[in-house]
Amino acid sequence: MKKIVIAIAAFLVLAALSAFFYIRGAARVQTGGEIRLEGLGAPVTVMRDEKGMPYIHAGSIPDALRAQGFITAQDRLFQMELSRMMSQGRISELVGEKARGLDIQMRALGFLRQGKRHAAILSPKCRAFFTAYLEGVNRYIETREGEFPLEFSLAGITPGPWTIEDSMALLYYMGWSMSANIQTEMVTRMLHEKIGPERAREILPLNINPDTSEAHVARSPEPPGVGGDLRLQDDPMLDLLARRPRHSPAIGSNNWAVAPRLSKSGMPIVANDPHLDAGMVPCQLHPAGIITPEVRAVGVILPGVPGIIIGRNEHIAIGMTNSYGDGQDLYIETLDPENPDRYLEGRRSLPFSIITETLRIRDKSAKGGYREETVSLRFTGRGPVISGVIPGFATDRVVTVRWSPYETMAPEIGLDDFLTARSAGDLRRAIGNITMAMFNFVFADRAGAIGWQTSGRLPIRAQGGSVAPFPVTGGGDNWIGWIPYERMLGSQDPPSGWVGTCNHDTVPRGYPYYVSSFFSPGYRYRRLGELVASAPRSDVNDHWRWQRDAKNLMAADIAPIVAAALKEEKGTADMAAILEQWDYVEGTGSPAPLVFQAVYREFALQVFRDEMGDDFAMFFLDEKYYWKERLHRMVKENSSSFFDDVSTKERESRDDIIRRAGLAVKKELSSPFGSDPGKWKWGDAHRLELVSPIMRSGPLRGLFGGGSHPMDGSAETLCRATYTFGKPFGVSTAAGLRMVVDLGDSDRVLAVLPGGVSGRVFNPHTTDQVEAYMNGEPRYWWFSDRMIREHAESTLVLTP
């Protein structure tokens, strides 16, 4: 028995050692020596620094792009494959039946179909830009199978070759994921049905431009009862695509630039922290340096797309946020009463276009492990029918969606010009070619110019704004033109000496066009203005600190009201005392942020649930941009009829609901955190958990991911750390990158990722930036040859 036990123990040790060395080997890539890369015109040198970040030295831009494709595949091939499968509606090949509905959505929206259309019209210059990069990607896939990430074996899939259509589909998916107005229209119509048009108008979106204090109040153009019922199903399946599905490439962001006179270096400073699903490792952005005789640039881009989209070259620096420009409309179609397979355009009866798609669904019971299913998708001239396609979205009418990027594609897409731009003017011209997404770009050049500019194309609508689905009753087009690019929102060299965008309402007084009804409240932007004003001459360290600033200006306005109400109730007086002593900084070690966030969340739910019901109230409140400015004004003015609970005989006041919310929160949070609110800590509840896409849940998720970390801030702070309303208080969105560029520093750029450069599980550079990301320790992208050489820890030569 003793010998058997020893033999078993020895076997287990050997098995563990074998697994360890196998996993360690599968996590690593060749970063030194030589690798042959067909297609190169001359050798390319790739130096990697202490973070594993690649710096590509090539004799030409095409060779640099080939190397970028190859190196990106080394680091992020599995992430690229997942993104491609998502954008093309192929996730059921990976996870089976539970992704079937999501795949049907993606097939209906047709990012790959659009990618093919756009690829066909690209200019020779733009086509060459993508082709060189994808040659590098495909050479890696063809020649380095033994180096593929372990994730492919765990997932049971293999990568295929990449085409320009794949990259374009990925860009369109990113653009769709940044769009927002579909959920505004859905919520508005559901409000009409649930509480009636008059009460719905009281809580339509309120957007306030913090520069002018001008309020833009959304108005529904639709009379009550028109268009039929538009409601939530009882059992929503997966995430609503229209509500920005989890793990979408982009959600929000902060960016800003200060002019030379506000900078200690005497040159402009640009800062950017795009807010993404930071809980996924790797993050959505891959960093690289690209150095040729024509270009010296460092920055990040989506894996699967060439060049850089955030970063700097020798002449300019650029960052981006989501502008939330409204390029989406829902339409309630009119069926032909004599033939339901046709729809009406005025008096004309037209057939639906039909596209057939074949899904390949993983199924253990099927022969070969997969089964195929054919689905038919309907389209009108405006776009795909989404009723019955988007899960959770029920209707007794046919609803279609229209999206402006599908109607405004151009032969140039701008990204290739970002590498070579030499001035603010060059950048604004390049931004004009970006039509598949509505961004706010902030930029600066070494001549001292600073500015911001929106991208995309926005329709001019006959009805003015667009906050509800548009009922099709006639034969005309309600999109009657496009806002000219030269009239799109933006500015350059303002008298204030700084520019910034935080997804807020940037529409100036007197602007003649409708832009959107969906903006972030202005708390982050207003706080940014305070910080810029506090430092007449700032440096990169100031801006690095500002990106992690956790002061909540919404709380500064509302917490005293909450405290005054809680003070009048014996059971919540201790919570009131905590709020009275608070400086409104949402630090992890403080109890006040948890008290405020929990009470205000519960207050919002109790304000609306009696009229809306629990399910719809949660759906409504998860769209925070829709109601947050509105509720803020209601609380300050203390005059809304929504404060009365219609389910009781009494007439409740605002403060009654606050106290009721406080008692409910104290009862709920006493179980996990103790009965003494003074001992609660924001960081105990508000945590960022970094997980791998291959192991999102279960006991091994910590082994594959980057751990769970307490995090400062909230949705209202520059240190962005949002949580979904239905799942408090875990962080769902945070900075997917922090970057600060001083154009007066020719050696380095301050930058950190929430994970690392690599996307391979167990690779040392997959999570080696987590600690710096959480504590604010500086990390750098190197820019000068001297700094790149000094920090190089490996050198790989790619030879023709």
What share of the residues lie within helices?
Answer: 25-40%
Which outline best applies? globular
**Low-pLDDT runs:** 12-18, 221-250
Task: Give the class from helix and strand content and strand pairing.
Answer: alpha+beta
Sheet-strand content, in percent, reads 15-25%
The helix count comes to: 24
Q: What gyration radius follows from the Cα positions, in whole Å?
A: 27 Å
User: In this structure, how is the largest beta sheet organized?
Assistant: 11 strands, mixed
Q: What distance separates the N and C termini? A: 61 Å
Total number of β-strand segments? 35
Mean residue pLDDT: 91
Strand order of the largest sheet: 1-35-2-3-9-10-11-12-21-22-26
Question: What's the topology here?
Answer:
Elements: H1 2-27, E1 33-36, E2 44-48, E3 54-57, H2 61-87, H3 92-95, H4 100-109, H5 111-121, H6 124-143, H7 150-155, H8 164-178, H9 181-195, H10 197-202, E4 206-209, E5 214-217, E6 230-232, E7 252-258, E8 269-276, E9 286-291, E10 296-301, E11 310-313, E12 316-322, E13 328-332, E14 335-336, E15 339-345, E16 348-351, E17 353-362, E18 370-379, E19 393-395, E20 399-403, H11 415-420, H12 424-431, E21 439-445, E22 450-454, E23 459-461, E24 470-471, E25 479-482, E26 490-492, E27 498-501, H13 523-534, H14 540-546, H15 553-567, H16 573-580, H17 592-612, H18 614-621, H19 624-637, H20 654-673, H21 682-685, E28 687-690, H22 701-704, E29 707-710, E30 721-722, E31 733-735, E32 738-742, E33 748-752, H23 770-775, E34 780-782, H24 785-791, E35 794-799
Parallel strand pairs: 1-35, 3-9, 13-24
Antiparallel strand pairs: 2-3, 2-35, 4-5, 6-19, 7-8, 7-27, 8-31, 8-32, 9-10, 10-11, 11-12, 12-21, 13-20, 14-15, 15-16, 17-18, 21-22, 22-26, 23-25, 28-29, 30-31, 32-33, 33-34
